[in-house]
Amino acid sequence: MLVVAGVVVWPAVKPHVSALPFLDSVLAGTSPSGPTWPLTGVPADTIPDRTALAVKIENSAAARPQTGLNAADMVWEQVVEGGITRFVAVYHSTLPPEIGPVRSIRPMDPAIAAPLGGLLAFSGGVPTYIAEAEGAGLQVLRQDSGADGFFRTTTRSAPHNVHAVPQTLLDQAETTHRAPPGAQFEHAATGEPPTAVATGQATATLDLRLSGISTPRWTWSAVDGRWLRAEGSTPAVEAGGARIGAANVVVLRVDVVQTEARDPAGNPVPETILTGSGPALVASGGHTVEAIWSKPAVGHRVELTYADGDPVTLASGTTWVELVPNSGAVATG
Question: What is the pLDDT of residues 18-28, one digit of tens each?
Answer without folding.
Answer: 333 323 333 33
